Amino acid sequence: MKAIVYYDVGDFRLEDVATPKIGSKEILVRVRACGICSTDLYRAEYRRAKPGSVLGHEISGEVAEIGSEVKRFNIGDRVAVLHHAPCGACYYCMHAQEPLCDQYRRTNVDPGGFAEYIRVPSELVEKTVVKIPEKMSFEEATMIEPTACAVRAISKSRVSPGDTVLVIGGGPLGLLNAQVAKAYGATQVIVSDHHDFRIKIAEKVGVDYAFNSKKTNIEESVRGLTDGRGADLVVIAVASSSAVQEGLKIVRWGGKVCIFGDFRDVPQPNLDIDPKIILRDDVTILGSWGCAPYDYYAAFNLIKSGRVKVKDMITHKFPLEQFNEALRVISSRECMRVVLEI
Ligand SMILES: [Zn+2]
Ligand SMILES: [Zn+2]
Hints:
- The radius of gyration is 20 Å and the shape is globular.
- It has about 350 residues and is of the alpha/beta class.
- The chain has 13 helices and 15 strands.
- One zinc ion binds next to helix 2.
């Protein structure tokens, strides 16, 4: 089968690799679409990926083969696959902290979504494969995983009806956090970014205010919209510690700042925080990474019902053969979500 194999920074090659073989509790999925996520690119850029590996984790496709013991699926089922499954029984799972679960971190699809076929291990078959309806396209279904990460961030941040939420960073995950915050009842959702292309898409998907931070003073604007208080929640949807500092300035007393951007790879100065912000201003700083199966199912329903709009966020589609062209588009920033059609 064809797959995009990672070798080094900027070195991805289309190659023929062995189609994975499945066990009795596993399924083989013919991948139809896979989103290209910035975390995939960070893994490549900062060499956290192993040379010879296949990346890609925002996956949808059709069931091509089922193991003899698999009951939940039939050949031809249209599915979306979440690539990590928690055990459900360890200390972390018992505390609803599934992304810390050892099995969660260990499990994955084989070899990765930038390939024609993936083997889905039994842990995933049981918990994290969702059948998608005919009216949901494969491209839209690739957005369930990132939406699930936003669902987790917004529910961890306990957004309440009437809240004002500021999202710093208007990339795909920023806009998903903004839309999920609206679905959770936030009445003013503000996105700040410095690319006009992204601002336009933010407006298209129903964000209340989308500001270009190069042209608008974000702090003043947010205070203007909140009787001077500041935002109830600020989501940091970029891996930038200066964005966190900005968020701490704009959050209201007693509000929350949720760190969401993937800081694992992008070298950043440590945060320099005045403890009084936490003590006297009662600001809570939290983080959110990954998603649990229940976040995945919630995200599926939010997309299926149209509460989270993903169609307008998919600005580019490429076949596997044009993977490097897709990377060029992503680095130009004149795009939102870029999806491979496989
Ligand atoms: Zn992702
Ligand atoms: Zn566990």
